[in-house]
Design brief:
Layout: H1 35-75, E1 85-91, H2 99-110, E2 116-120, H3 128-141, H4 157-167, E3 174-178, H5 186-198, E4 205-211, H6 216-221, H7 224-227, E5 230-236, H8 240-251, E6 260-261, H9 263-277, H10 280-295, H11 310-315, H12 319-326, H13 329-336, H14 340-348, H15 350-382, H16 394-403, H17 411-420, H18 425-440, H19 445-463, H20 484-497, H21 502-522, H22 532-535, E7 536-537, H23 540-547, H24 551-560, H25 563-566, H26 585-594, E8 599-601, H27 602-613, H28 623-642, E9 646-648, E10 655-658
Parallel strand pairs: 1-4, 1-5, 2-3, 3-4, 6-7
Antiparallel strand pairs: 8-10, 9-10
Helix pairs in contact: 1-2, 1-8, 1-10, 9-10, 9-23, 10-23, 14-15, 15-16, 15-18, 18-19, 19-21, 26-27, 26-28
Length: about 650
């Protein structure tokens, strides 16, 4: 200690720099009290509740059957299960995005019966070691014991056996769910089943396989020695097409939810469901995206509400919102059709316009109720016709009604009217009585008049006879000699004099009545009704841009015009081809590379970049600044290469190759 010096000590000093200093939090925009957001939130809450009810009904029967199956296996002693591992094969269909929801509900339903459950996704079943470790780890970790802290790489069948003997009753089953049977390697499944079967005498296992295709997939994937170890029970999920019909029935084809999809937007969502993923979950999320597009930052669309809320919503609008409503195309067109006195009064006084707006909104609600009711009548009348020209599902009829300008001009519609003329008396009466029962569910006053008219036609058809009246006497004698023109004229008269049966006359009358006074009146395209823009969303291009966005196009737009995403004034461009020094380096490099050919000289590229970011050539007088410019350029080029727009050239080392 004689040589100790204070100068050699280390003393803590509190500096100005603070490690881990958090940046200022970004203040989000407060829009939760905006009228448009309140309307959106209320509409989406109703939609979400309806969708959840559909999910419960969709899985109800399947979950009840699985619960009964698992309960029966649990109650059966292990000695009586000598015919193999009890296996439930759930034929889920190809709706892969919905599998996770279904299996999560399965686990929550069975957790009251089975304490130990393992669920294996396709990412954990690439080899036999992973699938065993994942299964055993989840089974042991499902209960808080001293063995629950075991590491995953220590999980073996011997460990599982000792744990089961120590902590479980002999009749307690261990449930293992393999969610995607087809994506799991057959070799892995083969070995996994044989390993489990070797312990089946002391451990009661239950397997659940999610099979997307058919039952034959199991026998194609497994050899006999593995499949013989399974005692298979088959369970079916309801088809996704039926589930989609329930979703549409409770969300779009109902009057409880005022927001409606029409036109190209509805067709886009249906096409994506049918031809892309068959996922009800994705359809609902896409529907939510369209709803956000409809409501976002637009207080006008806060009027998309139930009839009893219209007055309150209108009172919350500002004068600017009222002026914007007047500029809506359908409302503007409606105002132009009014008398001059009414038009002038509405233009001057907002109160009169608000009164008119209330009438238009209530009228649209009434119209949608009539439209959906009559559309169901049209579907019931024409869906079962030979070859179903209009389709078999209600969504197909809705698609034609909201996509075409005039439904009655469709060739499929005209073909269906012709086919209705070939219906027998019994079939026609059955269909008409069904129409009456559909109309009875509506509370609309005009629907009551329609019901009365239909009942009158039904009474006439019931009393009509099928006998054809006496045919007119032949006006062409056998001995009479006629020219071809004379014969043609007389035959035409005979055809005109031919009489129809009373039933045929009544049938033609009711078909003409439905065509001209029902379908022509009530099945007008919703996009032709005043104030439809407030309730209907039909912008398919906007929906497609957000649902099926193009990654390459988004990157190009972001790099060419960074203000779109940064929302800053320094990056504002007066011309699309302009390059501003305040733009990000990556954007400058990208726009310069668009001006070059296939090969780009790195030195020339650097000089062009330096000219933009340093127009006064200060870097030549300051070596530090020149080094910073080179570093920024190098980093931007590396980022551009990472994005896949350029790559190094093997022919010329000082060049890079453009890939776009």
């Amino acid at each position: 200690m004689d040589n100790a010096s204070v100068s050699k000590g280390v003393f803590a000093h509190k500096g100005s720099y603070k490690i881990g200093k958090k940046p200022a939090k970004f203040k989000s925009v407060d829009y939760f009290n905006e009228p448009w957001y309140l309307a959106y939130n209320e509409t989406w809450t109703s939609t979400q509740k309806a969708a959840e009810d559909i999910r419960i009904n969709m899985f109800h029967e399947l979950l009840a059957n699985l619960e009964s199956f698992v309960s029966k296996v649990k109650e059966t002693p292990i000695e009586q299960l000598e015919d193999g591992i009890q296996t439930a094969v759930v034929l889920t269909g190809v709706n892969v995005p919905d599998h996770e929801t279904m299996f999560e509900k399965t686990i929550s339903k069975l957790e009251s019966i089975i304490k130990h459950t393992a669920i294996i996704w396709s990412r954990n079943s690439d080899d036999i070691r992973n699938i065993l470790e994942e299964s055993i780890y989840q089974l042991i970790s499902s209960e808080q014991t001293e063995d629950a802290s075991i590491k995953k790489n220590q999980c073996t069948m011997r460990v599982l056996h000792s744990w089961y003997q120590k902590h479980c009753d002999p009749n307690d089953p261990l449930l293992i769910i393999i969610t995607d049977f087809e994506s799991t390697s057959p070799t892995v499944l083969h070995d996994f089943i044989l390993i489990l079967s070797s312990y089946a005498s002391t451990i009661k296992f239950i397997l659940i396989f999610g099979v997307a295709t058919t039952m034959h997939a199991i026998y194609r994937a497994l050899t006999y020695d593995a499949s013989s170890k399974l005692h298979v029970h088959i369970f079916n999920m309801p088809t996704q097409l039926n589930t989609l019909s329930d979703v549409l029935e409770n969300i779009i084809f109902c009057t409880e939810i005022p927001f409606k999809l029409t036109g190209r937007a509805f067709q886009l969502l249906i096409d994506m469901f049918l031809f892309y993923d068959l996922s009800v979950e994705n359809f609902i999320q896409n529907y939510k995206t369209c709803m956000i597009q409809h409501f976002y930052a637009n207080n006008i669309n806060s009027l998309c509400c139930k009839p009893q809320q219209i007055n309150n919503r209108i009172s919350s609008l500002t004068d600017e919102d009222i002026e914007d409503i007047k500029k809506i195309p359908s409302i503007e067109k409606y105002i132009q059709q009014l008398k001059e006195d009414e038009r002038n009064g509405i233009a001057v006084e907002n109160k009169k316009f608000q009164e008119m707006l209330v009438k238009l909104l209530n009228k649209f609600h009434k119209y949608m109720d009539q439209f959906l009711t009559v559309l169901r009548c049209l579907h019931h009348l024409m869906a079962t016709l030979p070859n179903s020209p209009m389709g078999k599902q209600l969504r197909e009829f809705y698609m034609k009604a909201v996509y075409t300008k005039d439904l009655r001009e469709c060739s499929e519609y005209k073909n269906c009217l012709d086919l209705l003329g070939f219906l027998s008396k019994t079939e026609l009466l059955s269909k008409l009585n069904s129409l009456v029962s559909i109309i009875e569910k509506s509370n609309n006053s005009s629907m009551r008049k329609l019901k009365t008219s239909l009942q009158e036609h039904i009474s006439i058809i019931e009393e009509a006879s099928l006998d054809v009246g006496a045919t007119p006497a032949d006006i062409v004698s056998a001995t009479e000699k006629l020219t071809r023109v004379q014969l043609k004229t007389k035959l035409l008269k005979m055809s005109q004099m031919k009489t129809r049966s009373p039933y045929k006359e009544a049938q033609i009358d009711v078909i003409n009545y439905l065509d001209q006074q029902v379908f022509a009146v009530y099945l007008i395209n919703p996009n032709c009704i005043p104030a439809n823009e407030i309730f209907c969303f039909n912008d398919g291009n906007a929906a497609k841009q957000h649902i099926r966005g193009s990654l390459r196009a988004a990157i190009h737009n972001a790099l060419s015009d960074p203000q779109l995403y940064l929302n800053c004034g320094c990056c504002k461009l007066e011309d699309d081809d302009a390059i501003v020094p305040t733009m990000p380096d990556l954007s400058i490099i990208y726009k310069l590379h668009l001006e070059s050919g296939t090969l780009m000289n790195m030195y020339d590229w650097l000089q062009a970049y330096a000219t933009i970011v340093d127009p006064n050539n200060e870097a030549k007088r300051n070596k530090d600044k020149e080094a910073k410019i080179r570093a920024r350029f190098t980093q931007a080029v590396a980022e551009l290469e990472f994005l896949g727009f350029i790559k190094s050239s093997q022919t010329k080392t000082d060049h890079v190759k453009r890939l776009t």
